[in-house]
Amino acid sequence: MCAVRLRPALTGLLVTALSAALALVAVPALAERVPRPVLSGDFADPAVTVSGNGFVGFSTGSLVPRSFSERPSGAWRPAGSSLVRLPSWSHADGDIWASDIARVGRWWVLYFAAPVRGIGEYGRCIGVARSRSATGGFTAIGGRPLVCPSYVAAPAAEDTVPVVLPGLPRAGVIDPSLVVAGGRPHLLYKTDRIPSSIRLLPLSRSGLHAAGQSVELFRHDGVLENPVLIERPTGWVMLLSQGDFTHCSYRTVWRRSTSILSWAEATTGVLLDQSSGLCGPGGADVTPMPHSKRLRVYFHAWTCRGSTTPCGPGIRKDTVRHRSRAIRPMYAADLDWVDGVPVVRGFL
Fold first, then answer.
1. Kind of pairing, strands 224-232 and 267-272?
2. Yes or no: domain 82-222 corresponds to CATH 2.115.10.20
3. 217-256 b/e with 16+ CB inside 10 Å = b?
4. Class in CATH terms, 226-348
5. pLDDT above 90: residue 8
6. CA dist 298 → 283, 301, 331 (Å)
7. C-alpha distances out from residue 182 to 16, 23, 104, Å
8. CA distance 103 to 110
9. CB-based contacts of 289: which residues, under 8 Å, 6+ apart?
10. Residue 55's closest CA among 334, 298, 300, 284?
């Protein structure tokens, strides 16, 4: 968030006094408008589910860090790592990115993007794990990835992604997200780097295995990631993160289509950006509110210097993020609809 600058006084003490008075009024008013995180620690790419008498959140990090709260607004407390161990096919060091959690039948199923060798430092492939409890230990399923390009140094995945995708880089796959369409589970995911492509994979009824080959829904010349699908009476709405995640201009956008498989004529718009007062609001996940048909969106944004103050635009530089102690805490907002378009009704 940029600081407000008052122009220098031009007509002596009267203007100076007026400027000071305006500053005293404007700064608190601006601060009141800036949403505050519901979880103030580092909790990027949140996925939140309702379990028992509380809420369980999952974030990017080693073995998928987890937090629990009895209320969505907090207080949230650490609940240990989600994964018991890395899957056997993940041999490289690094965090697990942007997981998704879902209840499928009598199991809790966790989809995650784990590091692999053969596609660079940031290469990831998608795996699946399950547990009897959202707060229990999740065990990876099988000895191979669920989704992974064939040229990666890992056992052949169930969905290998086409070997030749004209115009797309040799990179990994990230940002898994479960959606139920036509009564069957499907997995959304993104092929990494630029240009971006969003793909949809049919899954078995257990949600643990591929039940066909993935299809490309659309691609984008820049970065579109973290896809989440919401079924609406007139079709589908997809939330995505757009841009460079290290910039305050990173934002949450939406696309709307009448068909889950046809996005060429989709209408588009912005759900959350810098105008909210936040720096880089993205990584959004959508969770139904308990005992309600309403939805809540959880997302991250950058804060600096150990406070809830949003960072400034300089955090796009690694050295500035480190010096400013920049982290991405979790925020929450109620989602509403106006003429079929998603809007934020209010922040928690």
1. unpaired
2. yes
3. bbbeeebbbbbbbbeeeeebbbbbbbbebbebebbbbbbb
4. mainly beta
5. no
6. 8, 10, 6
7. 65, 56, 15
8. 9
9. 295, 296, 334
10. 298
Mean pLDDT (the chain) is 89
Residue labelled with tokens 């018991």: 84
Structure tokens at 308: 């809830």
CB distance 145 to 61 below 8 Å: no
DSSP string of 103-119, one letter each residue: EETTEEEEEEEEE-SSS
CA terminus-to-terminus distance, the chain: 20
State the Cα–Cα distance between residues 99 and 226, nearest whole angstrom.
10
pLDDT digits (tens, 9 = 90+) for 189-204: 999 989 999 999 999 9
Domain ranges for the chain, please list them: 82-222, 226-348
Which uninterrupted H or E stretch holds 227? strand 224-232
Q: Give the three-state DSSP class for 321.
A: helix
Cβ density class 279-292: b for 16+ within 10 Å, e for less? bbbbbbbbbeeeee
Task: Examine the pLDDT at 305 and tell me if it is beyond 80.
Answer: yes
Read off the pLDDT of residues 146-185 as tens digits, 9 standing for 90 and up: 999 988 888 999 999 876 567 778 889 999 999 999 999 9
Residues 287-297 have a mean pLDDT of 91
Are the beta carbons of 113 and 124 closer than 8 angstroms?
A: yes
Cβ atoms of residues 209 and 199 within 8 Å: no
